[in-house]
Design the sequence.
């Protein structure tokens, strides 16, 4: 926490070094988060890229009320939600299929190098209801507290805890059934 | 069936690999966006850029950094608390036991040599202090990191990184310096405030904290660096820990004005070792290497005054106030087209610091640089008390000896004529 406060302070004074440190410290975490929320590596990479670019564009406006980690995680979540809305619109108009086929094909340069473990887990998470998946990912990968997630999803903390518990049970049964196969 | 804990652990520990080439490309885009965000600000006049282009103001800039060191460093000198109320003595004692503190300091200076009269030179410093790992100070002005100072106690090293000049200084510390620097400045400030006499202030609300404060006006708190001083220290009435310190000081007949605010105190913060480890880019030049000048030794005065006299053609600073040295030194540097290096600046500043220490330690110091020059071999230039009836005296030719109180009176009678 204290290191982050220093980094933000230096960033506001124009320190490039501070920005590099923030980027290196959180990019993997954010990539995991976006990838798990979207189950689409290419889209996840674009979102994390855009988050950092946006973050770097206006450091003077940055106001942290919690941790930097939570702040960046929230940026990713908001962009993921927007991306999903766009995707839904495209699906209804029949555009998404073609777009998705393109984005899932390997590009010449890809940020995330495939991790089998990540892929398996993302596939299992993708089978969970949207709200349960988000709670699990935000809590376990984004490091966000239930209270913060409750504020983000605009529901009570009890609902968040229930979603987390049900989601975890379902995930366990999915992974166990895969292991039996 | 997997236990829930295992699933949680699995998700938490999932790892990814990233492509380095792509990683660099993304970072480049981020940095480009960051550089573009700075452009509108670049239209604003950057006072520090002006400072670094001018010989005289380079001197002032270097001095400004030293002034900060002086203001912070003076409090490394210990001293007992005489006459403080029990409450404030208790606060001083309490904070000295706290292992870490982080705070910010804003310094605003006007009236520096050859600067526009009303131009405020602002510097922000964040200070990390750990009794275990040492001290780190990052000073920033107008978007640029001016200096990063690291005092690595275990390795007995002082490292000062100066990004604008792409250089750094590396100095070894003696055991005595380690023990003095190891004490936290902020903790000592409270002791100093209490020691030099204070008035208690009415309670005040600071960021929703009920704070109680004291005010000091005795210029000896900063060793006579300034001619007037209004220093206020505020502590949280509940926790009894400092929350704000403000100092408003003037020097050189009110022409130099310094305002210093220490704020955003975080007491007993968890500080990782990495904060105190210098990160020096490989293309930075090692500008100074050697031993840290000992500010507590009269040899510092000889070195500093000798360098000043060489620069000025035989004259000494008219007073041992840091502000005067900065102003007069800057003027001589311009006249002689000289450009004192960082090491010289530290030594000259060290002389002022030694004098300030004598003032603080109430050793009855006096200085006659306004009347005595280098060729006045037998004239008294400076003196201070070393025992009840003995004084140490430095003459115009920078020789020194111990004299009795009576002999001192005779020497000073000559100088006043």
Sequence:
């Amino acid at each position: 926490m204290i290191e982050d406060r220093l980094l933000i302070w230096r960033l506001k004074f124009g320190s490039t070094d501070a920005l590099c440190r923030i980027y290196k410290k959180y990019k993997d975490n954010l990539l995991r988060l976006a990838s798990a929320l979207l189950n689409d590596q290419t889209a996840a990479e674009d979102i994390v890229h855009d988050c950092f670019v946006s973050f770097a564009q206006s450091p003077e406006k940055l106001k942290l009320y919690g941790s930097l980690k939570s702040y960046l995680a929230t940026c990713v979540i908001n962009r993921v939600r927007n991306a999903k809305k766009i995707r839904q619109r495209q699906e209804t108009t029949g555009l998404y299929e073609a777009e998705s086929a393109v984005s899932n094909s390997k590009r010449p340069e890809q940020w995330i190098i495939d991790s089998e473990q990540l892929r398996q887990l993302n596939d299992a998470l993708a089978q969970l209801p949207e709200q349960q998946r988000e709670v699990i990912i935000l809590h376990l990968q984004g490091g966000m507290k239930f209270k913060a997630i409750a504020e983000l999803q605009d529901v009570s903390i009890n609902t968040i805890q229930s979603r987390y518990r049900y989601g975890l049970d379902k995930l366990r049964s999915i992974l166990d059934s895969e292991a039996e196969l | 069936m997997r236990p829930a804990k295992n699933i949680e652990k699995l998700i938490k520990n999932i790892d990814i690999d990233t492509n380095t080439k792509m990683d660099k490309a993304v970072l480049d885009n981020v940095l480009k966006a960051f550089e573009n965000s700075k452009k509108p600000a670049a239209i604003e006049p950057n006072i520090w850029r002006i400072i670094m282009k001018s010989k005289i103001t380079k001197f002032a800039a270097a001095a400004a950094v030293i002034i900060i060191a002086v203001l912070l460093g003076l409090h490394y000198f210990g001293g007992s608390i005489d006459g403080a109320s029990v409450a404030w003595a208790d606060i001083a004692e309490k904070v000295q036991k706290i292992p870490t503190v982080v705070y910010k300091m804003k310094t605003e200076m006007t009236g520096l040599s050859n600067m526009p009269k009303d131009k405020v030179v602002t510097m922000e410093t964040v200070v990390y202090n750990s009794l275990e790992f040492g001290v780190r100070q990052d000073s920033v002005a107008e978007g640029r990191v001016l200096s990063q100072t690291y005092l690595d106690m275990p390795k007995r090293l002082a490292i000062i990184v100066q990004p604008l000049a792409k250089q750094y200084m590396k100095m070894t510390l003696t055991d005595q310096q380690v023990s003095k620097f190891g004490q936290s400045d902020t903790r000592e400030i409270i002791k100093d405030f209490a020691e030099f006499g204070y008035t208690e202030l009415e309670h005040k609300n600071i960021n929703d904290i009920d704070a109680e404060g004291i005010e000091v006006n005795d210029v000896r708190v900063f060793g006579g660096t300034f001619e007037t001083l209004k220093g206020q220290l505020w502590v949280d009435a509940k926790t009894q820990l400092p929350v704000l310190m403000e100092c408003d000081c003037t020097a050189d007949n009110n022409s130099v004005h310094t305002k210093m605010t220490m704020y955003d105190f975080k007491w007993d913060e968890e500080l990782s070792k990495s904060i105190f480890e210098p990160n020096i880019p490989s293309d930075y030049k090692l500008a100074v290497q050697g031993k840290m000048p000992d500010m507590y030794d009269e040899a510092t005065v000889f070195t500093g005054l000798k360098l000043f006299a060489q620069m000025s053609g035989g004259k000494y600073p008219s007073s041992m106030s840091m502000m005067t040295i900065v102003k007069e030194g800057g003027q001589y540097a311009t006249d002689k087209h000289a450009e004192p290096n960082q090491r010289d600046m530290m030594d000259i500043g060290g002389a002022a610091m030694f004098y300030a220490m004598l003032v603080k330690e109430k050793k009855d110091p006096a200085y006659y640089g306004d009347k005595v020059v280098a060729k006045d071999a037998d004239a008294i230039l400076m003196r201070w008390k070393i025992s009840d009836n003995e004084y140490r005296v430095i003459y115009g030719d920078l020789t020194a000896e111990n004299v009795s109180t009576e002999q001192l009176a005779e020497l000073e009678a000559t100088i006043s004529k």
